[in-house]
Specification:
By secondary structure, this protein is of the alpha/beta class. It is 30% helix and 16% strand.
Length: 269
């Protein structure tokens, strides 16, 4: 029965055992090993969740994305619908390792992280698991964290010579930002070009595999004000700041996706 189920799924999605590195659908231990490597429950049944995880890997390859797998952040298996949205964060850290340490200490998690070199780290399968990254919006969304200090005040830029050498490149990316809630009024640290390219590619793959609408809010959300996003009905891509009145991270995704041709979502009148 398990072999027939896997064979039918493979035929339905046009996936062969060889594509998984096994000789046949009867190699249930081989399927289980493949599932374990891709953050799936290793039950040996190659079903729709496994097929979606397979197409994620194909999408990474076709887009030339540098994706590595990392474990250590807890995720929960989805019991019902697939993710309907993508939510983008700034880590407000200097590295992915710093982000991992902070999230683990707080009992939080994410699906993906993009470092300043544009490398993508995957922590869970977005189709079968949800992460703790956006409160009530967790089960509907896929979390992506972009490594970025965001706040120029963190660079201690009292005088140019006082900027720590490790932060000099980050200081060169400080830009004017009306939406900033920084202690350095009206400024923010921009993402690297490598991050922009990687994020755009990752979002494109996720939208294709999970049928997520290519829609993004146009507003650069103001800190401390009602954002107007209904977390139970919104479908598309948004920033953490669009969802929380106490956050101003992730907003750089708005111009990135609008320039890429995503549709503009506007607050209902």
């Amino acid at each position: 029965m398990i072999v027939e189920f896997s064979r039918r799924t493979g035929e339905q999605f046009g996936i062969t055992p060889a594509a998984l590195g096994i000789s046949g659908w009867d190699k249930t231990s081989g399927i289980a090993n493949w599932q374990r490597e891709h953050f799936l429950s290793p039950d040996g049944w190659f079903g729709p969740a496994s097929a979606r995880a397979f197409f994620l890997q194909v999408g990474y390859m076709l887009r030339g994305l540098d994706v590595g797998r990392r474990r250590g952040l807890h995720a929960f298996y989805r019991r019902s619908e697939l993710p309907q949205s993508i939510l983008v964060h700034d880590t407000v850290t200097r590295s992915a390792m710093d982000m991992e340490r902070i999230l683990a200490a707080r009992g939080l998690s994410t699906h993906f992280c993009i470092d300043e070199m544009g490398r993508i780290l995957q922590y869970a399968d977005p189709g079968s698991s949800w992460a703790c990254h956006a409160a009530a919006f967790n089960q509907e969304s896929i979390g992506i964290d972009v490594v970025n200090l965001l706040d120029p005040a963190e660079l201690r830029m009292l005088k140019p010579l006082q900027v720590a050498p490790v932060d000099q490149e980050r200081a060169s990316r400080v830009v004017d930002a009306e939406w900033s809630a920084s202690r350095v009024k009206g400024q923010a640290i921009a993402w690297t070009e490598a991050q922009r390219i990687a994020l755009l590619g990752l979002i494109d793959v996720l939208c294709s595999v999970f049928g997520i609408r290519r829609v993004v809010p146009t507003e650069m959300a103001a800190f401390g004000k009602v954002q107007g996003i209904d977390d139970r009905t919104f479908r598309g891509v948004l920033a953490h700041a669009h969802f929380s009145t106490k956050r101003w991270d992730g907003l750089q995704v708005v111009p990135l996706l609008l320039e890429a041709g995503f549709d503009a979502w506007r607050r209902p009148e």
